[in-house]
Each structure stands twice: as structure tokens, then as C-alpha cells.
Amino acid sequence: MSVSEIAASDIVETVPSALIILDRNLNITSANRAFYQTFRTNAAETEGCLIYKLGNRQWDIPALRTLLESVIPHRASVEGFEVEHDFPTIGRRTMLVNARKIFQPGEHDGFILLAIEDVSEERAARKESKRNWQLTQSIVDTIRDPLVVLEADMTVVTASKTFMIMFGITEREAQGRRVSELGQHQWDVPALRHLMDKVLPEDKPIESFEIEDDFPMLGRRVFNLNARKISQPGNHAHRVLLVFEDVTDRKIRERDAHMLTTEISHRIKNNLQIVVGLIAYEARSTAAPCVQGYMAMQARIGAIAQLYDLISQSSRSGAVAIDAYLREIATTLRASLLGEASGISIEVKTEALDIDPDRAVPFGLLVNELATNAIKHAFPGGKGRVLLSVGLVGDQIELTVADDGVGIPVMTSVKNAEKRGADYLAIFVRQLGGTMVPSVAQGSGTIVRVRLPLLLVPPGDPGKLAA
Amino acid sequence: MPILIVEDDSLIRELAVVAVEDWGYRALEAGTVAEALLFLRSSQPIALLFTDINLHGVPLGGCDLAREAIGLRPKLNVVYTTGNFISTEMSARFVADSRVLRKPYSLGQLKDCFSTLLAA
After folding, report:
1. Measured between beta carbons, which residues in chain A are less than 8 angstroms from residue B90?
2. CATH number among 3.30.450.20, 3.90.79.10, 1.10.1780.10, 3.90.190.20, domain A3-124
3. Does A143-246 match A3-124 at the fold level?
4. Pick from B82, B85, B106: CB nearest A336
5. Looking at the whole model, is its pTM more than 0.80?
6. ipTM of predicted assembly, 2 dp
7. Which CATH topology does A143-246 take?
8. Which residue of B has its CA nearest to A297?
9. N or C terminus of chain B with fewer C-beta within 10 Å?
10. Could you tell me if A378 and A405 are in contact, meaning their C-beta atoms sit under 8 angstroms apart?
11. A13: part of which helix (H) or strand (E)?
């Protein structure tokens, strides 16, 4: 064995491709280890065997016959001849066959070297990948919201059908162009550029970024943009997925609803203004002792009125934030009873709770009544502090109205106006299904506590209103 | 001291006028921006403009009126009133040193407001 022969056989044994050598009669003279492994056979079964007869004639493949009998005789070599076949032992395979005629000096009839590469897995993977891509594309195309994938420099990689329709462009026109150049440059907006600048470096998805504009084909539209960075494994280049959600109709409905709420609120306030004005008009010709009652009536109407502002601003199906509500009541009390130079302050301290609008009115009137009592009677010196607070105590709500004044036992007060106030208190507490906790003298001042069933709802949970 | 009351709801306007006159002021009344401007452009002395904000469906009509009024009479006191929520868009258009009363205002509040401004 010469050095060159050793080297050749070593190479033959170590290459991963299956190699066989055929003589001119297509009998196998030798095969390498890769061939035996791939096709689960051995040298004894193989050598000297007609290739078509090998392994129960499983190599008797029409495509292979064509290659060996029609192509090879006329050509010195063939590359990348693809053979797909069901092998009984190893299943369906796709093979790439390279063939080369080898002539040895002095011999007229050469040998045929066949290199067989099993590409089944690669082909299967490619098919799978193509199927996945088609699936993805069909999903993308069925999504109603226009969707586009962008390179980091904002050029379009791929886009959904609705995206093309929206911009009135074809896929070819879109690909490789910057978003800002699309359509009639209507997306060339600083807001969008800013958005994209943020998504890429910060790795943070952006939800509901609103853009309102006139679009040549669509008219005036409002879109919510959602952007998200797509990172591909093993690839440092980042792409951005951008989804355009058309919220125009929803926006119109919201604006209509807002306008309606505003209009109703405006009318209600005007009507309450008339009521307050008529009460005041009546009070002109009323004996002095009764005027106090008319004034208290005006304050109660004011307390109800404040609700409408809070409801019209509240986005969650009318649930009112208790903190904001108490602050409004405090503001109204300051304006109607205290004036700017007053030495009496009203403070609010509550847990984060919402109140359902059905009970907000008696609740507000209750707070108004208690606070008014404190303001009017606790501070003969005109100086002090009233604290309105609401908190959870077990499964109940506790409203506390505390002052640091002279200390009046509210329920046993003797003045006429006070008595009426106490009656009102009883009405409101009853309506709310609550109970008064006897007032406690704590140092100086008065503390009134009212326990109420869970009429308040936790923020963001308007569905769980207590019965 | 004359007070110009601009309010498109005639009953609300009437009740305010009666109260203002009870307090000893002279009341001038207007139901529209145009009527109000007739007073403001005349030589009639006016100490204070008390105007509703939403006038005949123009959401910030009272704001525009007050701006024009201040243009005509820079020293005029201005008090707004509104049944709507006071948005930042609204308050941004208030003239300097003006006041606002939310509806329903009590006549006590109105009286305090006027007497404070007119005493200054």
C-alpha cells in the first residue's frame, strides 16, 4: 500500500458522506463506514452486490436507474442529483447524490464513485420553516389591525395585508422603505420617531400610543400604536413589531358619551342653581330663626351637586373615588361656611376606596351634616381643625369626623337646628344601613364614628358592589 | 356699584339680579355675549362682570367674553360661574385675578365674593 493509497482510504473512512464505488456493471466494489451506518448494512452484504439488489432491492429506484444508466455514461460527473425514496429499513429519505467517473491508467472502463448525502432532515426543517412562515403570514393577514415589522432604522421588513390597504401600497413598495416615507408621509411625525427611539434602547413594550391624524385614503382616524422589540436568538440586530389599532369608532363613542355627561351635568347644576336661588329668595321673607335652616339646605344641595363632577370624570362605570369625593365636600364646606380668612381647617384622610354612585349621595350628605355640625358648634373661638377620615374596620367601613373644638356630645344636643341635624343624620345612616358609634370624648373635641356595611368597592372592581 | 350679570338661563339670572339688588348693588343683565358687549362697549360704569361660562351651547363663551371685556376695560373685576367641571383647559383661559364659583353657588358665597372684590 503506497502512502497515497493510505491517505485516500483514511479520507474515505472519515468523511461524513456515504461513499460507494461501483464497477462498470454497477456492482459495488466498496463502500465507506458512513454508508454502512446510514443505510444499516455492512461490508459482507454490500461488496460485490449489484446496487439494485442491495438490501432487498431497496436501491432499485427509478431515479437512481436514470442517473446510473442514462446520465453517467454521457458525463464525467453529476452533482446534486436529488433522490427521494422510501427505504424499508430507514424510512423516507431525501438524498443528494454526487457521481464521478474514475479511470485508472490502462483501464478503459472506469469505476463510478457515488457520494450520497442524506439531506432529509435539512429538507424537513426547510419545509417546516416554510410552513411556519406561511402560517405566520396567514395569521398576520387575518389580523384586522394593520401590523408591520421594522428594522432598527425604521425600514419595513414585512407587513400585513391590512397595513398595505391602509397605506394604499403594494408589498413591493413597502419593503425596504422607511415608515416615514410611506403613503403621503403622514407617518413622518415626531411622536412616532420618539416612540421608536424609546422602544429600541429600553426593551420596554409600548402600549396604546395614540396618534390622531387625517389619512388620505381613510379620512380622520385615531390609532393606538403598540410597539414591541423582537430579538432573534443569535442575532444582534433588533426589529420592531408595530401594530396599529384603529380606535376611531371607540374614540367617537367616548367623546359622545363625555359630551352627553357634560351636558347632563350642566343641566342638573343649572337646575340645582335654580333650586338654591329659589330657597334663598324664599329666605328673604322668612323670620330670622328659620334662615339657618335654609342655609343648611343650600349646603346639602351643594354636596349633592359635587357628585356630578366626580362621576363625569370617573372612567370606571361611575364608581367614585372616596378620597376625591371627601376633598370635594371639604372644598364646598370651606367655600360655603368658612370663607378665605377662616381659622378653621378641614382635612381629609382616607384609604384608597371607591364608592358606588347609588350610595354616594347619602354618604356625602352624612359627611356634610357631621362636618357642618362640627364647624358651627365646636369652635366658638373660630379656630380649629376638622378631620374627615374613612377606613376599613374588619368587613365594615368606618367614617370618622373628628374635631379639636370644645367637645359637644352630638346626639344629645339641645338646640333646635341641632336636633334637625340629628334627625337628618339618622335618616342618612339608616339609608346606608349603618350604625352610629356613640361619640367619645377624647381630650378636647368631639369624635363621631359611623360604621357602614361594605358599601365601598375596592378601586378597579366596580362589579363587586355590595348588595 | 353696577354689576353686569351674564347668564343664558333667565330664571337663574333673575334670581341673581334680585339678590344683587338686595345687597345694594345695581344689576345690569345680559342673556347673550352680544348683549353683554353692548354694555361693555358703552360708557356705562361697570365694577364687576359676573358671567356664566357655557353660554348658549358655546362651551367657553364666558371665557371669551371676559377676555374681550378686559381688553375694553382692563380694571374690570371678573367672576365666572359654571355647571361644568373646571378643566385645566378652562382655567387656563381665565383672566388674571378672576374668581370662579361652581354651580350651584349659594347666595352667601356670591355675596362674599362680590364684597371681597369690590372692597379691594
Report:
1. none
2. 3.30.450.20
3. yes
4. B106
5. no
6. 0.89
7. Beta-Lactamase (3.30.450)
8. B106
9. C
10. yes
11. helix A3-14
